[in-house]
Automatic annotation (TrEMBL):
Transmembrane segments: none annotated. This is Propionyl-CoA synthetase. Gene3D superfamilies: 3.30.300.30, N-terminal domain of ligase-like (3.40.50.12780). Residues 66-446 form the AMP-dependent synthetase/ligase domain. One of its GO terms (cellular component) is intracellular organelle lumen. Belongs to the ATP-dependent AMP-binding enzyme family. Residues 511-589 form the AMP-binding enzyme C-terminal domain. It comes from the Bacteria.
Length: 628
């Protein structure tokens, strides 16, 4: 482990030297003379006087160095029967033109642009066009409903929203425009313009004076040049679920992000310029931002944008078809995708129909990698299966197997070791390090490495309160786990009310807010329970107001529909039980962790702080009733 240990040691003892070296792989309009500004602790800033443009580094830099004809992007869309490729030169030109269109609509450096698009090349083009202008994009995942979009529009206050007439999910055409219109109706902030990509599957009605067809917007636009920005300027805001209904606007800066992602491609993902990297995720999530859009392009690799599912588009061989057709070297997805494939094709017979000789690695992240899925994937694909652990907040892996730096042995159940730059600790409730083998809270000693969030959008206080106040001097990850004697980390799950459904991060608090708004509901709890396909699924429990008579089946259907309508289909809440009471501590806190333990079939001790043990006894049979 010498190469890894040496790099990790240096990154912690001398981060200035370590990350200063890493800046050299990129173009800077003004190279940073200082690497780390510690003067406003705990608000650390990387490369404080550096100036660069992220889009230049992702596109123009490669064209300028003679790689303009190399493939930058492969769009593979089984749901529309399309495969389209873009060279670096073509993609640069499309991005420059769309940046010109945004400029014509008044978008300037620092302005926000909300992007609400399905998995089409225009999503990536819109993001890079914002980066080109020094504008700040905020992509909202298509599975979120109008209200969630409205909340994000009100927080980011975009000048322009870029969207499409529809997405295509499981063979259904899902119109996006009515959701966008409803969101703008609900939001207090009104964007000046909306640019709408009209897809052939469905035409959206445009609001005169506000909305423009994408084709019309680019028709007369001059290509825009890259605007140099401060390394510390925001590149994007990505909203993620916290423990309340109010999402957190994770901010990503330009300089630290480019340096960290560029470093990660060679050192963690072992991917070189010209190789084909496929992150089968969605641009609405952090994995999509980092490893569909920015990192592969910063590295000069070819990225695959896949508008489809692991199963059903058309079958459980879809991933193998894409790998063989495009000669993918590195596949990155969430374990749930593999569980979906395994469910349909348990012995992996479809794999034999395709030539997978190009594939060197499988990286999995986004949720805990269960040892069974790890073993199944490794045996069937005969490539190393590499778990990596990270969060929207960090933007790139905290713990991983650094394949390019030094391939380490893998251990089932562990994402391997802390990545250089991250000083990971496991602590007890008093903040003291616990010995190997003992569970605790996983924290990261400050400063976080480049690429991690410098703050939350417009809310430094919430940033400190959410992440830095529990263990001063450390960032609270919200995950629990332990180290083993060899320094391998085991991440066991969230210690808060965030849940992970099919690799999608969701807040049980947000769902509780929706259930509590029903006129019949006095109080409620939503917990995440184990699910063999999605990892976790939410389950709701409601107590009715005194004197209210409601048919449980009708009420449940109403509550499920409300969550779908308010948060979106992605919330996947399907089961709500009406119960006489919820178990609480004497101070009135609902015992969600105890409920979760019982629902997951664990022998959960009854907490000594419980107010009325009889309530838990009554609930026990409901909790252990399996999810349909
Ligand atoms: N736009 C609109 N709706 C969307 C959507 C989008 N971009 N993405 C998902 N939805 C909808 C789905 O259609 C589904 O709706 P339904 O309840 O009407 O069927 C609902 O949201 C739940 O979607 P999902 O959680 O994806 O479940 P699924 O049963 O459709 O598919 C998997 C399950 C495992 C196949 C799927 O989650 C998957 O491919 N996961 C891969 C992992 C991944 O991408 N993780 C992201 C982070 S790395
Ligand atoms: P997100 O912000 O959507 O990327 O979700 C981050 C959360 O997903 C983390 O805090 C973890 O709880 C979980 N997670 C992500 N990757 C892993 C992993 N490899 N192992 C265990 N949990 C993971």
């Amino acid at each position: 482990m010498n190469g890894y240990r040496q790099a990790h040691g240096q990154s912690i003892s001398d981060p200035e030297e370590f990350w200063g070296q890493a800046t050299k792989g990129l173009d800077w309009s003004r190279p940073p003379s200082r690497v780390l500004d510690r003067s406003r602790e705990p608000f650390f800033r990387w490369f404080p006087d550096g100036e660069l443009n992220t889009c230049h580094n992702a596109l123009d830099r490669h064209v300028d160095s003679g790689a303009g004809d190399r493939t930058a992007l492969i769009y593979d869309s089984p749901v529309t029967g399309t495969v389209r490729t873009y060279t670096y030169r073509q993609l640069r030109d499309e991005v420059a033109r769309f940046a010109g269109a945004l400029k014509n609509l008044g978008v300037q450096r620092g302005d926000r642009v909300v992007v609400y698009l399905p998995m089409v090349p225009e999503a990536l083009i819109a993001m890079l066009a914002c980066a080109r202008l020094g504008a700040v994009h905020s992509v909202v995942f298509g599975g979120f409903a109008a209200h969630e979009l409205a909340v994000r529009i009100d927080d980011a206050k975009p000048t322009v929203v870029v969207s499409a007439s529809c997405g295509i999910e499981a063979g259904r055409v899902l119109p996006y425009k009515p959701l966008l219109d409803a969101a703008i109706e609900e939001s207090a902030h009104k964007p000046r313009h909306c640019v709408i990509l009209q897809r052939p599957q469905c035409t959206a009605e445009l609001v005169s004076g506000r909305d423009l067809d994408w084709a019309e917007a680019i028709a007369g636009a001059e290509p825009a040049a890259c605007v140099p920005v401060a390394a510390t300027d925001p590149l994007y805001i990505l909203y993620t679920s916290g423990t309340t209904g109010r999402p957190k606007g994770v901010v990503r800066d330009n300089g630290g992000h480019a340096v960290a992602l560029h470093w990660s491609m060679g050192n963690i993902f072992d991917t070189r310029p010209g190789e084909v990297f496929w992150a089968a995720s969605d641009v609405g999530w952090v994995v999509g931002h980092s490893y569909i859009v920015y990192a592969p392009l910063l590295a000069g690799a070819t990225t695959v944008l896949y508008e489809g599912k692991p199963v059903g588009t058309p079958d459980a061989g879809a991933f193998w078809r894409v790998v063989s057709q495009h000669r993918v070297t590195t596949l990155f997805t969430a374990p749930t995708a593999f569980r979906a494939i395994k469910k349909e094709d348990p012995s992996g017979t479809l794999i034999a129909s395709y030539d997978l000789s190009s594939l060197r690695h499988l990286f999995l992240a986004g949720e805990r990698l269960d040892p069974e899925t790890y073993a199944w994937a490794g045996e069937r694909l005969e490539v190393p299966v590499l778990d990596n652990w990270w969060q929207t907040e960090t933007g790139w892996p905290i713990a991983a197997n650094p394949r390019g730096l030094e391939p380490l042995p893998t251990k089932p159940g562990s994402p391997s070791v802390p990545v250089p730059g991250y000083d990971v600790r496991v602590v007890d409730s008093a903040g003291n390090d616990v010995p190997p083998g003992t569970d605790g809270s996983i924290v990261i000693r400050l400063p976080l490495p480049p690429g991690c969030l410098p703050t939350l959008w417009g809310d430094d206080d919430r940033f400190v309160a959410s992440y830095l106040s529990a263990f001063p001097g450390n960032y609270l990850t919200g995950d629990g786990g332990r180290f083993d004697e060899d320094g391998y980390l085991y991440v066991m799950g969230r210690t808060d009310d965030v849940i992970n459904v099919a690799g999608h991060r969701l807040s049980t608090g947000a769902m509780e807010e929706v259930l509590a708004a029903h006129p019949a509901v006095a109080e409620c709890a939503v917990i995440g329970v184990a699910d063999t396909l999605k990892g976790q699924v939410p389950r709701g429990f409601v107590v009715l107001k005194a004197g209210v008579e409601a048919d449980p089946a009708t009420l449940t259907a109403e509550l499920v529909a409300m969550v779908r309508q308010r948060i979106g289909a992605v919330a996947a809440l399907r089961q709500v039980d009406v119960v006489p009471a919820l178990p609480k501590t004497r101070s009135g806190k609902i015992l969600r962790r105890t409920m979760r333990g019982i629902a997951d079939g664990r022998d959960e001790p009854v907490p000594s702080t419980i107010d009325d043990p009889a309530v838990l006894d009554t609930l026990r049979p409901v909790l252990i009733r399996s999810t349909p």
